[in-house]
Design goal:
Helices cover 41% and strands 16% of the residues. By secondary structure, the protein is an alpha/beta fold. The strands form 4 sheets. It has a 5-stranded antiparallel sheet, with helices on both faces.
């Protein structure tokens, strides 16, 4: 039997690619696309066919390969190793920029190095660029490492602890973990540990089960089959630590006021802005709870450690802040963003962009406008208003009260009634005045 020619082999591969549901593309050693299935064309193609174009021009809209543009190139890696390679990239798709997990396999039609490379692309559920609130963008190594772990965490059932400074995207990352999991079709219920007082938080979390009171399910039951997100877990009251441990250990809980043990099928995700590990070492947080929450501890990097990611994020935020309009950042404005240290992270970036839009008339954001928007955070707070201090006002009030009592006859109860206060309040204020007078000494009394 006559062996297939290279052209016949390409036709066979192209036919086979069409049977695959996920985007696949085949290209040669010069990065030229020689075959692509319909799934790839639908996600990554534009109006024209991608055949004959380079993979980096289609996916990155770039004129140079990935390794010359600051990203890992799977083809270059595979040419060096001769083996399959896996990387994470940010690609242009029909919906904007999206994170894609790439698996590249070198193919050989004979002896020698690989002539063709088969690339499988898996879109990660991290949101596209643009006005979607769940967008997570970044090409920096620090951020890409976290994104890869978020995708892995989604495939796991282990509890996740998302750590990072305020404004680093911890809540968005929690939504990503849920969206990437097998629980994505079930609810993600958010518990803000800092928003409710202790008694109400316990009731809302576990539900009502007291005798004689109508039973009411809590957030644990609402999240059944899904995920339970504890925001600012460091603020969870100490009295609820054992109850959360019970939920993490055995998947069981009791409604408030009930002895009935109930089963819960929930995945726990928690966020924190403090270093809980150091809190454990200082014996200020329970070690047992920390280690059960942190099966997968992930640290989200601050914006100052993400380099040029700030420009990607700025573009995405501008689209959300001014939908239907296209703004560009001039070179000076970009440099101003790159030089700033961003102590407020994404919250601060959003504030700065809102200001700069107010200072921009056209569609190009200038360097002076950006400098002015950034400078507002550097303005020192105004000096206190002139006038007596609060301490001196209290001292004068106490002295006036003492003098009023001296000129008011009758019992303490009658004096208090005459001064428009309770007897208890009068005693307390007089006692405070006497303590202050004794502290000043006889000369100042």
């Amino acid at each position: 039997m006559t062996p297939p020619t290279p052209l016949d082999a390409l036709d066979l591969l192209a036919t086979w690619l069409e049977t695959l549901p996920q985007p696949h593309v085949l290209f040669d050693a010069q990065y030229r696309i020689v075959a692509a299935n319909s799934a790839y064309q639908q996600v990554f193609g534009q109006d024209a066919s991608v055949l004959g174009r380079t993979c980096y021009a289609v996916s990155h809209r770039s004129s140079v390969p990935c390794d010359q543009a600051g990203e890992a190139c799977p083809l270059a890696r595979a040419q060096y190793s001769g083996q399959s390679e896996r990387v994470l990239h940010l690609h242009h798709t029909q919906r904007g920029q999206e994170h894609v997990a790439i698996t590249l396999q070198p193919l050989r039609t004979g002896a020698g190095p690989a002539q063709y490379f088969l690339e499988k692309m898996e879109l990660l559920p991290l949101g596209a660029a643009g006005p979607q609130p769940a967008a997570l963008l970044g090409r920096s190594p620090a951020f890409q490492a976290v994104v890869e772990w978020l995708a892995r965490a989604g495939r796991s059932t282990a509890s996740v602890l998302l750590q990072g400074e305020p404004g680093t995207g911890k809540t968005l990352a929690a939504h990503v973990v849920h969206a990437a999991s097998a629980r994505a079709e079930r609810p993600l219920v958010v518990v803000d540990c800092a928003a409710l007082p202790e008694a109400l938080l316990e009731l809302e979390l576990f539900g009502q089960g007291r005798t004689g009171v109508p039973a009411r399910p809590g957030w644990v039951e609402a999240a059944q089959g899904g995920s339970l997100l504890f925001k600012a877990i460091e603020h969870l009251p100490a009295s609820l630590h054992p109850r959360l441990l019970q939920l993490l250990d055995g998947g069981t809980y009791r409604r408030v006021g009930s002895s009935e043990l109930r089963q819960a099928d929930v995945r726990i995700v928690a966020t924190t802005s403090i270093d809980l590990r150091s809190q454990v070492q200082a014996q200020q947080w329970p070690a047992a709870l920390y280690y059960r929450l942190s099966a997968l501890p992930l640290l989200l990097p601050p914006l100052r450690e993400r380099g040029a990611d700030v420009l990607l994020l700025a573009d995405g935020l501008l689209q959300r802040l001014a939908p239907g309009h296209t703004y560009t950042l001039c070179a000076a404005a970009q440099q101003a963003l790159l030089r700033h240290s961003w102590p407020g992270n994404l919250h601060e970036l959003r504030n700065v962009l809102q200001r700069v839009l107010l200072l921009t008339e056209g569609r190009s954001i200038s360097g002076p406008a950006m400098a002015q928007a950034l400078a507002l955070d550097a303005v020192p707070p105004p000096p206190p208003l002139a006038g007596p201090s609060r301490a001196s006002v209290r001292s004068r009030q106490a002295q006036a009260l003492h003098q009023a009592v001296q000129h008011t006859s009758g019992t303490r109860q009658e004096q208090a009634r005459a001064l428009g206060m309770s007897e208890r309040t009068l005693y307390r204020r007089l006692r405070d005045w006497e303590k202050n007078a004794a502290a000043k000494g006889p000369a100042q009394g």
